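Please think about what follows:
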Amino acid sequence: MTTSDWVGLIMTVVTFILMVGVYFYALRPKNRDKLEKNRFIPMDDDAIDSGEKNGG
C-alpha cells in the first residue's frame, strides 16, 4: 500500500468513528431536551441578518 492509501484509510476510519460518536450523542435520551431546544434555529427568520446595516 502506498502512502496515499494509508492516508485515505486513516481518514475514513477517523471519520467513521467521529460519525458514530455524533450519532451516539444525538440519540441519547439524556441530550433530548438540549437538542429539542435548538431544533428550529436554522429556520428562525429573526436570527438572519438582512444585511441592511452592512450596505447590502
Observations:
- The mean pLDDT is 84.
